[in-house]
Amino acid sequence: MRxxxxxxxxxxxxxxxxxxxxxxxxxxxxxAWIATPASLMPILFAKPGVAKHSGxxxxxxxxxxxxxxxxxTALAAGEIEIATLNFATxxxxxxxxxxxxxxxxxxETQDGVGDYFTVQFMVQKDxxxxxxxxLKGKAVAVNGxxxxxxxxxRSYLQQHGLMFKKDYSTIEVPFPxxxxxxxxxxxxxxxxxxxxxxxxxxxxxxxxLFTLKDALNGTELSLWEVRQPFLEKNRAAxxxxxxxxxxxxxxxxxxxNHKEAVEILAAYTKIPAERLDWAFTKGDTYRDPEGLPxxxxxxxxxxxxxxxxxxKDDLDVAKYADLSLIKEGAARIK
Length: 334
What we know:
The chain contains 12 helices and 10 strands. The protein has 2 domains: 13-113 and 219-331, Periplasmic binding protein-like II (D-Maltodextrin-Binding Protein, domain 2); 120-216, D-Maltodextrin-Binding Protein, domain 2, CATH 3.40.190. With 334 residues, the protein is an alpha/beta fold. The chain has helices at 2-18, 69-76, 89-96, 148-159, 178-183, 200-205, 212-216, 228-233, 235-253, 258-269, 295-307, 324-331, and strands spanning 27-33, 58-64, 83-85, 102-111, 120-124, 139-142, 169-172, 189-192, 206-211, 219-227. A 5-stranded mixed sheet has the order 7-6-8-5-9. Helix 9 packs across helix 12 (324-331). The radius of gyration is 22 Å and the shape is globular.
């Protein structure tokens, strides 16, 4: 009996040691986001019960940045663990910043999918800009040079014979202030995205000249990416996080939860709920319910980055993706 007791005791201790909640602190995971609700990151787990593993195997913190290029520096410096990079910053991070250990682990948002929202490039409603060619010698406003929307804009203008830095100037402006920049004539064209584009005052002064869908015909606008060493060390915690991510995506998209989901968004953004009824519908940015990126679309987008001369080499995006974690996490959800 004593021998059996010792065997059972050793087995119990071994199980406790293997458990992620036995003595081990939750893995701290800091994620960077740009704009909400395009990114749900700051409200991802606002609904109690959605994040089953939060505080157990991982502790998640959402950190705000104004544009994706800054995320490369933060990721390289170890200031964040997850970066929401886009199709443009991925090859820049790999080739120019040397982050060859980047791995795509999940999708966040895609632009121009079906009837879902696409980013708008707007000009003065009664202004002199009638065609894309009219932008020659003018100023355009983006949230950051090298950001996905800026690359889309640059590509579209080049298709119309306008070359970056030569035929027009580019200024960097946070998304929330785009309306004021257009109203004050500080730029001739601005980048308008959700929720700011739905400001009634924006519609009074501006009109859409073209969209990001016109420019790229579908865009992998935001992806969750980590560095390989962190992934290898903390794979179990990341799978738990991605399981909770998929659960959150589905909760927000469920029509039965629409009223409560909009109220959560309204409380965070300080925008009245009646102005946010479009959220989590086809009027919103597309989110894949499985958390999976469109890898073919991503590859097409990355080719545009090379065509514009931003990077020199072709990038095989499949080499920089590990989607096994999101698939494992999603498969757990009944």
